[in-house]
Amino acid sequence: MSNKKETSTATTELQNLISKLEVDAVGIASLDEWKGTKLEETALRLLPEARSVVVVAMEVYREILDHASVGKKVDGAPMRDLLERHAEFLAGQLIKAVYDVAKATHRMELKALPLPAIGCPLDRRFLKAVFSYKHAAQAAGLGTISRHSLLITTDFGPRVRLSCCLTEAVLKPTTTKIIYECGGCHICIENCPAGALANPQGDEPYRINKFACSSFRAISGCSECMRLCPAGR
């Protein structure tokens, strides 16, 4: 009985810690609710006894995005550098948050796998990460993936950076709900400078040429779909 009480107390303490993380949004997905899905498959491949996914988000500031439009310069200086430094700061905040979750999980004598906000291991043959943060965020009720392939949140639109922590702790999931439905304005598709976006077909949520997008971003630091989305304005 005492072991059950100790476990319950430790879980409550972990839930409380998660609710107080210094991030702009946090959600929890219970893998028990996503059995047989790609989310569960990829999570268990990384942490075989994982039971929950904690997803954290930080806002990308609109003012910085407005200066980071493709080709914009001030006195000859490329303004995309502002966004790169901003992304580095947000990554630091996110990484601290997921490591705080992992550390608290370890105190429960359970395993946890914090995943980086930048540089998640990537299969470069297909430009496919080992774990999809945005799909985990959608499962945790933080937002909805839209036509530009980004997660749209209620408070920040697509202007968020994400990180995740897989944990063996059984945590209470946040409410999953449809937060935003894309109105099909096509602004992202029509204004993509890489021509990487297209109208989704059938039940596809989006259609994107990852290689065109990645190549263009590597050269120009593009974030036009995030900047122009009406949900983020």
How many domains is the backbone divided into? Answer: 1
| Secondary structural class | alpha+beta
- Strands, total number: 12
Count of helical regions: 8
The fraction of residues assigned to DSSP E strands is 15-25%
Terminus-to-terminus distance: 53 Å
Could you please describe the fold and organization of this structure?
This protein has one domain. The model has no long low-confidence stretch (mean pLDDT 92). Helix 1 (2-19) runs antiparallel to helix 4 (80-107). The strands form five sheets. The protein has a four-stranded antiparallel sheet, with helices on both faces. The N and C termini lie far apart (53 Å). The protein is built from eight helices and twelve strands. The protein is α+β, with helices and mostly antiparallel strands and 233 residues long.
Secondary structure: elements and pairs:
Elements: H1 2-19, E1 25-30, H2 38-46, E2 52-59, H3 62-67, E3 73-74, E4 77-78, H4 80-107, E5 112-115, E6 122-123, E7 128-129, H5 133-139, E8 144-145, E9 151-152, E10 160-167, H6 187-191, E11 197-198, E12 207-208, H7 210-220, H8 224-228
Antiparallel strand pairs: 1-2, 2-10, 3-4, 5-10, 6-7, 8-9, 11-12
Helix pairs in contact: 1-4
Give a brief outline of the structure:
By secondary structure, the protein is α+β, with helices and mostly antiparallel strands.
